[in-house]
Design brief:
The protein is an alpha/beta fold and about 160 residues long. The chain has 5 helices and 5 strands.
């Protein structure tokens, strides 16, 4: 079984990156796990943000096409508690053996990504920066795997 995290841009905050690396190591106890960093689009300050999202969408669509079951993180996605998320991950992994979570850039996804009609999940009704969403997601993936493996991490 394999889980991929596809994200636009690198994590800038070194403290966040350290936490992400810690959870990445933990996740690898249970499944193959990879983080794929795609380059952020370069745009001028005064350009419309949709141009920015469109450029990133082109790169994302190319990468997504290599993955059998991509899931986008989006505020309009389905929210689950941690136990339900664990069960959903198990179902997805049983069905596809390789799932990929996609986190967009600072300005979110372009309509071309939404047009793919991919499954969407939300981490919360609250809005997080894409940098923090990475940490929260990898922690929740680890939590899900610990739940599925009857480990004491989740109380």
């Amino acid at each position: 079984m394999k889980i991929s995290l596809i994200q636009v841009g690198k994590t800038q905050d070194k403290a966040l990156e350290a936490f992400i690396l810690d959870y990445t190591k933990r996740i690898k106890r249970y499944v193959q796990f990879e983080v794929i960093n795609l380059k952020e689009a370069k745009v001028h300050k005064n350009e419309n943000k949709d141009i920015y999202r469109k450029k990133e969408a082109e790169t994302l669509i190319e990468e997504i096409s290599k993955h059998p079951f991509p899931i986008i993180l989006d505020e309009k996605g389905h929210e689950r508690n941690s136990v339900a998320f664990a069960k959903q991950c198990q179902t997805w992994l049983d069905q596809h053996n390789h799932i990929s979570f996609i986190i967009g850039g600072a300005y979110g996804f372009h309509e071309d990504i939404y047009a793919l009609n991919l499954p969407k999940i939300a981490l919360s009704k609250m809005t997080f920066t894409h940098q923090w969403a990475r940490l929260i997601l990898v922690e929740q993936i680890y939590r899900a795997l610990s739940i599925l493996n009857n480990q004491a991490y989740h109380h």
